[in-house]
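Chapter review: from sequence to fold.
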Amino acid sequence: MIITKTPFRMSFFGGGTDMESFFKENGGAVLSTTFDKYCYVNVRHLPRFFDYSTELSYSKTERVTNIDDIQHPAIRNAMKMLDMHEIRLTYEADLPARSGLGTSSSFAVGMLNAFYALKGKYADKKNCIGRTTVNTTIFFVDENRNEIEASFKNPGYMAFKGDMNMRGYYKEPEITKEALENGNIYTNDLGYVGDDGLVYLLGRKGDVINMGGLKIAPTEIEEVVVTHEKIKDCACIPIKDEITGEAPKLFVVMNEGCEFDQKEIAKFMLNKLEAFKVPKVFEVIDEIPTTFNGKIIRKKLKELDLQ
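The token string follows.
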């Protein structure tokens, strides 16, 4: 069973400008953002003891034996494209359909991610963020914005070119100048494209831990530790190390009534991670600092580490 959680988006100016054919003919721009309301797509293989082969549940329920009989056009075409058969799909959301808040596009993204995962294309691919859109080309650069061949051992800074790139940050000329050059968008995100053609994001500049030339994504450590029954939350940052240059440090928030035991947590991590990724330095704090949408504010943790 696969469950995807996809944020809705709020488009301040739309009118079709996010469609390639409309954009090329008429121009325009889209201002949009995501917010903390989500749609959930649940997909699983349907047992064969029913007299139908596909069951879909969204604003209505469909049960069919032939994909061509599916009324929902997005589901029908996606199943054809990915050769999906014998599935049960359930759609739920925090907002009603036709609200104008991207319910259709968010559903399409969640559905495709669920389909790919069910086919095993995304399963167990740590740090994988999928593929670029058909209208965008990704490339990787070094700190001087020279294009490089990025890999797991030698990740580069993600950059994007294409007609669908934004024109700039609204009323933020300095930030726009920093991010845009010759129509290309340059980021501080380190990553690479794997042999499977998928994009892998290791983290932002300053967040990825360079331990003697070995790159460690902090999220890889966090995703393991947070599954420990005694851990409520955690966050990882790089700290200076005399031998390796940098090393991981882990901040943890304990569940109520649980005591911190470094040896126990380290042993738990060794069963799921390579030894060099297990931090030697831990610190227990009351709360992990985050933004309004739950993103870890690592800068505050680095400041805390220096105190």
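Two observations follow directly from the output. The CA atoms of residues 4 and 110 lie 6 Å apart. The two ends are 45 Å apart (CA to CA).
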